[in-house]
Amino acid sequence: PLKMASDSPESLMTLCTDYCLRNLEGTLCYLLDNETLRLHPDIFLPSEICDKLVNEYVELVKTDSIFEPHESFFTLFSDPRSTRLARIHLREQIVQDQDLEAIRKQDLVELYLTNCEKLTAKSLQTLVSFSHTLVSLSLFGCSNIFYEEENPGGCEDDCLVNPTRQVLVKDFTFEGFSRLRFLNLGRLIEGVNVETLLQPLASLAALDLSGIQLNDVGFLTQWKDTLVSLVLYNMDLSEEHIQVIAQLRKLRHLDISRDHLSSYYKFKLTRRVLNLFVENLVNLTSLDISGHTMLENCTIPSMEEKMGQTSTEPAKSSIAPFRGLKRPLQFLGLFETSLCRLTHIPAYKVSGDKNEEQVLNAIEAYTEHRPEITSRAINLLFDIARIERCSQLLRALQLVITALKCHKDDKNIQVTGSAALFYLTNSEYRMEQSVKLRRQVIQVVLNGMESYQEVTVQRNCCLTLCNFSIPEELEFQYRRVNELLLNILNQSRQDESIQRIAVHLCNALVCQVDNDHKEAVGKMGFVMTMLKLIQKKLADKTCDQVMEFSWSALWNITDETPDNCEMFLNYSGMKLFLECLKEFPEKQELHRNMLGLLGNVAEVKELRPQLMTSQFISVFSNLLESKADGIEVSYNACGVLSHIMFDGPEAWGICEPHREEVVKRMWAAIQSWDINSRRNINYRSFEPILRLLPQGISPVSQHWATWALYNLVSVYPDKYCPLLIKEGGIPLLKDVIKMTSARQETKEMAR
């Protein structure tokens, strides 16, 4: 079989990092005073390991709901003599002022702080301690980092209402950051003077000012000899901006793209502007003009287009100004512009909305910092996966997984991403996916279900889980899946379709799994949840799939699991059984499921006395004559009674009906069944049937057991002959043949 790229095992480094982070106390650390983590004194870790520990920690806190963050985690890296940090990427709410403060003695080279909204101006002061080594810094989306708290003095009443006023810090600059080359200030708060802030930086190579409005960018020319990358996403441009950009002749990457939905925007891109860029920025290898409206025609009339294969040669370019390029661009961003639909585009990689390749390029380019664009790109991918066939399936899946992990709290991405996953994991793509990749899908789906109570996300996630082999593929997250599904089913207001899918999944999860799994799920409240659903449906007088699946799930979860059988009885399961029987006399499928479940209950000796009432015995006896679902209902009713008879005449604690009368009806029922009936039942073990063979107290029970075995091994020999032999059935049958108490027809069948 072909080995897939994504199927190679994780590196040993990754596995060890993951293990240590999940078991800090048992590996690198000990607990001081039962609360503070401390590094063992004999440990020294180089930056290759420490960087990975910190970055993986942030990733785990963000994407793994089971992982517990540690208050004192960052203090483990406070002393550069034992732990060295160089390049770290911190995100969102995970990091606070005191965490950065804890690592201030480290010689950081690269520090990315993305959307860290809890950081305040205290962290600006901490940044100064890295100023002599820092080469790359990102403060993208750190919306409070320029705010400090000011305590207004002596205002007793006001203090209660507003104990701290936030004040903008105006005097911070990058003075002393002598090695800083790469800086991202994306989404910087209004009111900070960018020019003053950056002025001390001698030689910037890359600058990102996404989402910042500056009328005058003339100060950028102070780096015209060093600046190779400039990002002005969503900045309102004007002619002045264009003139300044044209002077930055060393630029290799220029991004002036915008979100065309974000705001009214006067500036229009013209042929002249693009010509200006091509003539002046001779080193350009990457340009992004996504979201722009083209004011005048930048395209070559289709009559003059060179026909033939689509070409990346600038000379053939369908976009006129790009005919002046010396060589094709590495990347050209044309997402949500009319240009991406042209034939000849002089770039190796184009982001756009024309085809799968362009859409995937867009998701790849914009996921990290532009979720608003990414969600629209994923929506396009969703259409491609739904209507056509995805040709780059693995790449598409990886990109959607990354986007869902990266933007766990972004509703649009969770909705579109979870919908796309449903189509990308369905059966026609099955062969191309590795176990590792499919597990990643399951992880993000469960994350989505956990963080979003929103109906669409929940439905998409449940539907996606239906694309997996259950329970096998969900085994590694067994507890968690069940908890999430039960959580959905226990909500007071419920969406019909989600309820149906969730019950179906619950049923599949407890079918064909080990008893310890069933016991664990029973303890989570599974039995109670199913009975509540049945109760609701009964009250509405509806017998739909939810009703049938719920009984089926109870049948599965009670199989050879006495604890769950007992729960069923304790939560008035028998009362519901009788009510359903009365309310829905014609529903065969329902009767089969209910009696299958009662068969499981009857197998438990300690619980049988609870079935020994005139009402229950009469109901079971009457069901012997049922023709519902072939022989299934009659067969199961007879099975329940066979176990009860097996306890002997002294256990028959009722006057009506008489034991002999019921025995007679059982014989009549068994004789009426066709021995070659195909069956709607699945045995994992014959043990409950085999125990009825070596006894003379109830010949009819012995006959039912022998009939059951005979039918199963003759209709399904490949499946059941090995099981019969494995579980020691042969000697037991031989003994039946020799027994004097056994009926002649039972002996014949046993032989």
Shape, please? elongated
What structural class do the secondary elements suggest? alpha/beta
Order of strands across the biggest sheet? 3-4-5-8-9-10-11-12-13-14
Number of strands: 14
CATH architecture of the domain at 612-750: Alpha Horseshoe
Strand residues, percent: 5-15%
In whole angstroms, how far apart are the ends?
Answer: 48 Å
Query: What is the count of helical runs?
Result: 30
CATH topology type of the domain at 612-750: Leucine-rich Repeat Variant
**Which CATH class of the domain at 612-750 is shown?**
Mainly Alpha
The amount of helix comes to 40-55%
Outline the biggest β-sheet: 10 strands, parallel
The whole-angstrom Rg is 35 Å
Uncertain spans, ≥5 residues at pLDDT below 50?
1-5, 158-162
Explain what this protein looks like in three dimensions.
Strands 3-4-5-8-9-10-11-12-13-14 form a ten-stranded parallel beta sheet. A two-stranded antiparallel ribbon has the order 1-2. A two-stranded antiparallel sheet has the order 6-7. It has 30 helices and 14 strands. The protein is α/β, with parallel strands linked by helices and 751 residues long. It starts with 11 loop residues before the first helix and ends with a helix.
